[in-house]
Amino acid sequence: MRDRTHALIVIDMQNDFCPGGALGVAGGDALVGGINALMDDFPAVILTQDWHPAGHSSFASSHEGRAPLETIAMPYGPQVLWPDHCIQGSDGAAFVPGLRQDADMILRKGFRRELDSYSAFFENDHETPTGLEGYLRSRGLSRLTLVGLALDFCVAWSARDAARLGFEVAVVPELCAAIDLDGSRDAALHDMRDAGIALG
Ligand code: VGL
Ligand code: ZN
Asked: What interface predicted TM-score (ipTM) does this complex get?
């Protein structure tokens, strides 16, 4: 067991991000056993859950004439458009069967219709906080290990924000799977290394 300052953050291990889901990531479901086992090593475990209202602005279906995986300009910057996914209360938004749920906290994100949230710390405007920073700091959790989905979106954005906020951050790539849109997997690994995030 690691010391009391360590937290494991399990990002978006939800049905819609696994094969057969609306935004299925190859290999997503295969991570469950390894992630469950890793939970035993950590005194604090936090699960995140992508949690969108129907008609969310990150859905291609909310934009006339747009298709999934196109990028559009939003007031807060470029936004990739996705298939409808992780709708609040749906099966797709539920955690993958078999994932341990004896976590300390479940953090939901992406619930504001006009603003997407990849990172567990900030919405995609990079300034609206989710509250996770305060939760971690008030519990004295300063060392974070991240696993889950997707490596090149929610995991990478969360890890980079955490490093920027001064947390000591590690990502375990073997316990993540990537969407890999136009080389986004390699770019994310490169950016995380540059940001001083331990990989492995
Ligand atoms: C995610 C795209 C859209 C993720 C969430 O969890 O990486 N990706 N919503
Ligand atoms: Zn989403």
From this structure: 0.98
